[in-house]
Amino acid sequence: MSAATSRAGRPGFVWVAPALAFFALFALVPMVVVVFLSFTAYDGLNPPQWVGLDNWARLGADPLFAESLWLSFGLTAASWVLQTAVALPLGVWLARRGRTRAILAAIFFVPLLMSSAAIAVLWGTLLDPNFGLAGVLGPLVGIADGNVIGNSRFAFAAVVLVIGWQYMPFHTLLYQAAARAIPVQLYDAARVDGAGRWRTFVSITVPQLRDTIITSGVLIVVGSMTTFEVVLILTEGGPGTATRILPLHMYLTGFRSFDMGYASALAVVLLVLGTALSLLIARVTGYRKMASQREGL
Amino acid sequence: MITVSTTADRERAVVGGPPPGAGDPRPRRRRRRGFNVLGALGAGGWFVLVAVPLYFLFVTSLRASSAYLAEGPLALPAELTVDNYLRVLGSDFPRYFLNNVLVAAACVAIVLVLALPAAYGIVRSRSRWVARGFSVMLLGLAVPAQAVIVPLYLMVTQLRLYDTLLAVILPTAAFALPLAVVVLTSSLRDIPNELFEAATLDGAGPARTLVSLVLPLARPGLATIGIFTALQAWNGFLFPLVLTQDASVRVLTLGLWDYQGQYGTNVPLITAAVVLSLLPLLVVYLLGRRYLLAGLTAGAGR
After folding, report:
1. Neighboring chain A residues of B142 at a CB cutoff of 8 Å
2. Cα distance between residue A182 and residue A33, in whole Å
3. Using an 8 Å Cβ cutoff, are A231 and A219 in contact?
4. Contact B289, B4 (CB under 8 A)
5. What is the DSSP string of chain B?
6. A-chain residues within 8 Å CB-CB of B33?
7. pLDDT digit of tens for each residue in chain B (302 aa)?
8. Which of A45, A83, B21, B93 has its C-alpha lying 20 to 30 A from A139's C-alpha?
9. How many Å apart are CA B175 and CA A19, to the nearest integer?
10. ipTM of the prediction greater than 0.90, yes or no
């Protein structure tokens, strides 16, 4: 360390150490501890008791675990489809200049300012069958009593929609910035070749947005696998267990049933799944080798 | 204060914009290709989905609760009132608000103080350990808070910090730190090497270089990570939920949830609380949209 500091006025490891130590204490050490805790029985009051593989054996026998896992995958897939399908074209549309677009954009991005809790509370009142909007609009879309949240068929869709409402503006913003960076010559060339609007979108815009599609996809996947505030406030995992996604199952197991050993095992699954999924996406899509994108310019 | 038009001008000058819009020398020709019906329809549809809840939020917060029930949720209100706001402000809300301000300010202070030297070290150091430290930070970007919440609870109770604001501040700052370091590092890399060499020739050590060279040049980057951290802290939910309990240390997000449970039937009161929790960010959004959006998307550039 001292050799590095003395090297002609260059900073050494000491400059990085405080940040690293602080981060390690509250994020890396707990990551190790959570693995340890997954082999213990811990109720939050008494010291953890070593129980070996008990918690891990319980995973296989817990029907709620399998269900919550599938719900999480379902939420992730649905969120990705919905959010990308809206955010990509909308971002491209908003990338062009104009007064209308600027004003619309300013409103589009307001949900970005709201916390998950604020959004969930707002939608909770909107979807309340007695006092909200759902009682008025529900019958129009085939839900006679307007009780979207209390209906196991619609509650999951409502969760996907509300989470989409929260995060779509963010992804729209990413696509808007990326679409603005597409070299304008490509569009000029396409126009010379007589390409129409749709053809230009499919052959130029979408391929050029590849990086952003991957970045946004990874963020959606990781975000959907770990989010739970909105679901906790909106449905508490209900009705029954219809929206009990994996992070919520973990939270309720750990901090409502105080079964923190088993919750730790669930947390490890969550950690591994989130990391593995984002690595998989990066690998499959070849995120690191796409230097040829600007070929021919 | 940055206005929308200067932002647009600046960006247009830099990147030109994809399909030519306002900055296009031949806007007329473009217009003849026809109005983008599909795009406008899609944007219009989504606009309704975004605007209706927001309209509901703001208008309902200004209505008497009896009028809300009588007129229905979407009707234009016959008369407006600020009673809901006064009632919310008369409850525990100011205390939650103050707690939020304290948490956000402390997190920003911790992150700025730790991230700046770290980023400087990463950009300028030749030490192998620094490179390894940076890899650890990059890895840390992927750690979800949910995965470590049980051990954090254990640690916080062991440290006797449970039910204090510090229990919220420390992990929130720690989880904002890796991204702050990464963003700041990439902005410090833009400082020309010659400036550092000149500083060294003048006999400035690392501390002197940091204060008189890096700090002034790092301001935009510091603003970005400061806003990012403040947003994280302001909207944080999981850490306060698990690591605090008492109303005296309750933050806004938990307070809102509490209002929903307490006043479930009084929709105007709840919406007023939501609007008040959002107000500081709304003000920042109106004054400096560019900085706020830069802070928000800080995470996506990695």
Report:
1. 222, 274-275, 278
2. 46
3. no
4. yes
5. ---HHHHHHHHHHHH--SS--TT-S-HHHHHTT---HHHHHHHHHHHHHHHHHHHHHHHHHTS-HHHHHHH-TTSPPSS---HHHHHHHHTTHHHHHHHHHHHHHHHHHHHHHHHHHHHHHHHH---HHHHHHHHHHHHHTT--GGGGHHHHHHHHHHTT-TTSHHHHHHHHHHHHHHHHHHHHHHHHTTS-HHHHHHHHHTT--HHHHIIIIIHHHTHHHHHHHHHHHHHHHHH--HHHHHH--SGGG--HHHHHHHHHHHSTT-HHHHHHHHHHHHHHHHHHHHH-HHHHHHHHGGGGG-
6. 197
7. 333 333 334 333 333 344 444 444 444 444 445 567 777 787 788 778 888 889 889 888 888 887 887 777 777 777 788 888 999 898 889 999 999 999 999 999 999 999 999 999 988 888 888 888 888 887 777 788 888 999 999 999 989 999 999 999 999 999 999 889 988 988 888 888 888 888 888 888 888 888 888 888 888 889 888 988 998 899 899 999 999 999 899 999 999 998 888 887 788 899 999 999 998 888 888 887 777 777 777 755 44
8. A83
9. 11
10. no
A116 inside 8 A of chain B by CB: yes
| Burial of B44: CB neighbours in 10 Å, binned 0-12, 13-18, 19+ | exposed
Q: Which helix (H) or strand (E) covers residue A49, if one does? A: strand A49-50
From chain A, pick out residues whose CB is under 8 angstroms from the CB of B237: 115-117, 229
Contacts of A189 (CB under 8 A, 6+ apart): none
Q: Quick check: A142 and B265 in contact, CB under 8 A? A: no
Give, for A96, the enclosing helix (H) or strand (E): none
- Domains in chain A, number: 1
Chain B residues touching residue A87 (CB < 8 angstroms): none
The tokens describing A219, both together, are 């963020």
User: Are A95 and B17 inside 8 Å of each other by CB?
Assistant: yes
| Residue type at B284 in one-letter notation | V
Nearest to B21 among A97, A106, A126 (CB): A97
Q: How far is B240 from chain A (nearest CA, A)?
A: 12
What dihedral angle (degrees, nearest 10) is formed by the CA atoms of B60, B65, B67, B68? 40
By C-alpha distance, the chain B residue nearest A279 is: B142
Examine residue A249 and state whether it is found in any structural domain, yes or no: yes
A171 contacts: CB under 8 Å, gap ≥ 6 = A83, A84, A87, A88, A91, A216, A219, A220
Which domain CATH number covers A265? 1.10.3720.10
The residues near B143 (Cβ < 8 Å, ≥ 6 apart) are A27, A28, A31, A271, B175
Probe site for chain B from A2, A6, A20 (most B CB atoms < 10 A): A20
**Across the interface, do A28 and B115 touch by the CB < 8 Å criterion?**
no
CA distance A294 to chain B (A): 15
Give the structural domain span for A248.
Answer: 63-288
A90–chain B nearest CA distance, Å: 6
Residue A267 lies in a domain: yes
Domain contains A37? no
Q: Cα separation of B272 and B191, whole Å?
A: 46
Instruction: With respect to residue A112, please indicate whether it lies within any of the assigned structural domains.
Output: yes
